[in-house]
Give the backbone structure.
Amino acid sequence: MSSVETVSSASEIQMDYMTLLIAQLQNQNPLEPLDNNEMASQLAQFSQLEQLESMNTSFSDVLSGVQRTYAASLIGKEVSFVGDSDSGEISSGIVEQVFNDVDGKIVLVADGHQIALEDVISVSN
């Protein structure tokens, strides 16, 4: 991710728009006022964007919960995974522990190996 700028939330964008709109209304030409329909349309679009952003956050929370539950269900089961990224050798082990690392990723411990949940190839009893 090179040169990624901070993404503003919908509410921040909406506040910036409102500040701009107020300045525009204060300085508008009385003979050519702003179009009310256009302003209402833009405000409605910001409201929709805010609702979509909220839904996205909710779905992310649900997905995280499902992943944690799934990972916990793997305790006591045998999982296969790529043991060493250099050799590409497939290893397997019984899952003994599940935890979140410092980045918030789910990690499984199987026979002394720490495995990211997404690196699990197969699961068996």
